[in-house]
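Quick review question:
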């Protein structure tokens, strides 16, 4: 992933694709929707208010589909026009204890089986 580069991210549940820009990585990727339309589409992937909800997605990197888990933006980010979302791959971690998150690992496996 290259900072500032846009990637296609597709929901494994709906098949809807959107564009997200890679911002940074610290155990997992931090990405933001490229446009307002992408942000509205991404918000539609999630339920009401839970910032802990995760969804299986695939991201196209150099033409290769990679399974991932995307987490809804934290409430502090929701007020930003284009908030950052956490994107987790197999082996990514949340920064808590430096170990992979079991729930994200499970969601990545769902994406791998559907993608």
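Suggested answer, residue by residue:
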């Amino acid at each position: 992933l290259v900072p500032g580069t846009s990637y296609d991210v597709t929901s494994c549940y709906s098949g809807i694709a959107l564009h997200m820009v890679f911002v940074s990585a610290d155990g997992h990727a931090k990405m933001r929707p490229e446009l307002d339309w992408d942000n509205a589409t991404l918000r539609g992937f999630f339920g009401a208010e839970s910032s802990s909800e995760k969804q299986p997605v695939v991201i196209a990197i150099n033409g290769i589909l990679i399974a991932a888990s995307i987490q809804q933006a934290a409430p502090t980010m929701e007020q930003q026009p284009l908030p950052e979302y956490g994107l987790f791959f197999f082996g990514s971690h949340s920064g808590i204890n430096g170990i992979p998150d079991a729930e994200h690992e499970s969601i990545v496996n769902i994406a791998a089986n559907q993608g």
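Why it works: The chain has a mean pLDDT of 87. Helices lie at 36-43, 75-78, 102-114.
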